[in-house]
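Continuing the batch. This is chain 6 of the set; chains 1 through 5 are on the previous pages. Same settings as before, nothing changed between runs. Recording input and output for traceability.
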Amino acid sequence: MAPETQPSIPKDAMKTIQLILKPGKEKPIKGRHPWVFSGAIDRIDDSFETGDLVSVFSAQKEFLGTGYLNPRSQIAVRMLSFEEGPINEKFFEQRIEHALGLRSRFIPPDTNACRLIHSEGDFLPGLIVDRYADYLVVQFQTAGIDRWRETILSILEARAGCRGIFEKDDSEMRGWEGLEKRVGRLVGEEPPDYVEIKEYGIPFIVDIHAGQKTGFFLDQRENRKLVSSHANGKRVLNTFAYTGGFSVYAARSGASRVVSVETSERALNTCRANFELNGLIEKNEKGDPPRFEFVKEDVFEYLRKTTEEFDLIVLDPPAFAKSQDHVMQASRGYKDLNLWAMKRLSRGGLLYTSSCSSYVNPDLFQKIVFAAAKDARRDVQILAKTSHAPDHPINVFHPEGEYLKGLLCLVG
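Output for chain 6:
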C-alpha cells in the first residue's frame, strides 16, 4: 500500500480515485448503506492516501457513489454521496445547513444544548458537533472527515452562530484511524471550564474540557423527561449518575429521595453542583437522613451491599461492548446489573434500563432483561421502549447507528 501521509492540497482540489468492488459486493451500497468493508474491495487506483476521496464502482464498472478512504480500517470507505457530483465546500455547506435546519424544527423550547451534526445520521460520517449554549464542541472521528476540518469549521462559524468552537478528539477511534488525539480551542473564544446550559428550562453545568464524550449525554434528554414524569414521591436511585442528569430531573419532579452513584469524584462533584444550581440542596439541622445523597462507589458493589429499597431505579451505564467480540461478556454484565437492580426495587417499582452499546441490538437487550427478570423471580412489564433524542437521527439505511436503546419497566 502507498504511504499513509496527509496531503496539503486545497480541499476543493482533492483528487478522486477509482475503487472497484468484488463481484456481488455492490448490493449494500446500492441499498445506500454508507460503509464499504475492506473485504469487499477488489482493487484501487495506485498512489492513494488515507483520507482520499474515492469513486466507488461495481465489478461491472457501474458508478455507485463517492466516499473517503482509510485502507488501515476494516471500514475502508465511508460514503458521502450516492449521486454524481463533486465533493467540495458547497457539498458540505448543503449537508450542514440541512442538519441545522432539522434542529431548528425539533429542539424543544428553553433548550440551548443539542447535537447539531450526528455523523452518519446526518449523512456526514465521522463528524460530531454538539452545541452547549454559545459554544460548539466538535469531533473529527475519521481520517477522511479530518481532511475537511478547515472547510467544516469555516461553515460552522458562519452558519451555526457561536462564541467559540472547541475540539474534543480524545476518543480511541482517532487512534484506530491513524490520527492523533487533539483537545483544545479551534475558533473564537476558549470556553470556560464549566458552561451553563438549559434543557427544558432546567439549568446544568457542563464540563466541556474534562467531561466524558463532549461533556453531557444529550442523547438521553427525552428519556430524562420521561423518567422524571414518574418520580414524584418516589425513592429514586440513579446509577452511573455522571453529572446528575436523571437525578436533577427526578428531584425537581418531587422525588422523596434521590441517591446518585458514580465512581468519578469529579463527575460526582459536578452532580452536586447541578443540585445546588437548581436550588435543591437543603440544610438538614435535625440529623435526618439526607433527601439527596451522592455516593462515590462502583455501581455493582453498591447494588450488592445496599439494603435500601427504591421505587424507581435508573441504569444508564457506559458501553460494555466496544466490539462484536465483547458482546457475550457485555451481556453477562448487563444481566447482572439488571438482576441486582430488580432485587432493590419495591413491589410495583419502576426500572429504566438502557444500553449505549451499538453491538447489543434492541432484541438482544430485551432478552437480557428477560433473563434478569427470570433469575430475580420478578414479574416485569415493559411500559415503553426508548431510543435517541431527535437531534440524534438514525439513517434508515444505517441501522448500526441506532446505538441507544432503553426500556421503562414495571417490576411486580
